[in-house]
């Protein structure tokens, strides 16, 4: 049995997807990881590393700087790696962020979020 398609999460986008999220156009607009680099994230090594990093850094770095407390959800690349494996794995280039702060940061980096 096939699941029904779901709409893109971007407001008023008519694109239908196989799973919840953003369509390809809005993923790029939102600053999401390019499909060409998705393999860097979609593997056991990154899942293990990011889980360990978030365990060591349980609070959002950006929220802490603003005297707020929020749990971290994402290992963010401070400087976007753009497929550079050395920069991707450089632990000095990582920070723990909550989903909200990560979306804001990647939106700004992509020119979408002001």
Task: Provide a concise account of the structure shown.
The protein has 114 residues and is of the alpha+beta class. The chain folds into 2 domains: 1-30, no CATH class; 32-110, no CATH class. Helices cover 39% and strands 11% of the residues.
What is the total tally of β strands?
A: 4
Query: Could you list the spans in which at least 5 consecutive residues all have pLDDT below 50?
Result: none
- Helix-strand topology string: EEHHHHEHEH
Strand order of the largest sheet: 1-2
Layout of strands and helices, then pairs:
Elements: E1 6-7, E2 16-17, H1 24-29, H2 38-41, H3 44-56, H4 61-65, E3 74-77, H5 85-89, E4 94-97, H6 99-110
Antiparallel strand pairs: 1-2, 3-4
What does this structure look like?
With 114 residues, this protein is α+β, with helices and mostly antiparallel strands. It has two domains: 1-30, no CATH class; 32-110, no CATH class. It has six helices and four strands; from the N terminus they run ββααααβαβα. It has helices at residues 24-29, 38-41, 44-56, 61-65, 85-89, 99-110, and strands at 6-7, 16-17, 74-77, 94-97. The strands form two sheets. The protein has a two-stranded antiparallel ribbon with strand order 1-2. A two-stranded antiparallel ribbon has the order 3-4. It starts with 5 loop residues before the first strand and ends with a helix.
């Amino acid at each position: 049995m096939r699941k029904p398609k779901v709409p893109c999460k971007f407001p008023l986008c008519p694109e239908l997807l196989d799973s919840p999220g953003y369509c390809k156009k809005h993923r790029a607009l939102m600053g999401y990881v390019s499909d060409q680099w998705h393999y860097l994230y979609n593997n056991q090594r990154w899942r293990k590393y990011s889980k360990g990093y978030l365990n060591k850094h349980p609070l959002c770095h950006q929220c802490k700087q603003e005297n707020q407390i929020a749990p971290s959800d994402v290992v963010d690349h401070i400087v976007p790696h753009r497929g550079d494996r050395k920069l991707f794995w450089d632990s000095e280039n990582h920070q723990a962020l909550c989903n909200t702060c990560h979306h804001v940061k990647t939106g700004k980096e992509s020119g979408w979020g002001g």
